[in-house]
Amino acid sequence: MSARVLFSALFVAVLAYCTQKAFMHRLAQSFSFPQDDLFGRLAQQAMSKMNAPGMYDALARLGLKDGETLLEICSGPGLGVEEALRYEGVTVLSVDLSEDMVRRASERNAAAVSQGRARLYAADVADLSLVPSASIDKVFHMNCIYFWRDLDAGLSELLRVLKPGAPMLAAVKFRDIAKLGSASQPFFLHTNETRVLEAMRRAGFVEVHSKDVRLGTSCTGVNYRSGCLVDERMHYTAVHAAKPRP
Which pTM does this prediction carry? Predict the structure, then answer.
């Protein structure tokens, strides 16, 4: 093999490697802050497909009841809001950093928004000043806590807005995130399960524990009739915590 051919092959290999790294870096950025562009749409499609079964299952575990208000953090395109609203009499307050995602989620749940059953805001979990203290019955977030810029401040705010004794459920996939490699490092800030649970206790949450959830072969929850398929990538870990009672 001539030196020119060898150099050309090496150049193509390096270019392909760098292109792949750049692609994965940009995609990871879109998971942390999805926008209405090509990479944002790819992230939305992936989130909708991979998160839906776990999201439906986690919301079912929360046992939403008539008259309760659910706060969802990182609502994304609004699948969780849509599912929670299927529970009769439940009101949903939703927060996402991305204004593009708030718009898409609002469009997806337009009827509930117009009826006052859903309120969606662009805001940071570390500053939930729009939510009164002790006004939320249950908190839910899925594949979201990794991205919080200030983990302690976000958890403190969630503790503040929850009613005494009210639960929080975080659906996470720490082991899967660890497989993403260095491309995800600047955006996935909190990927150690032990440290995240310690932060919850430090914030004042009680009954903090995690449980691996292996889903069945189809969706659960109110939306189980949709027949969505479940594969190995969709199982998740449920992290439970609660606000102390007086």
Answer: 0.79
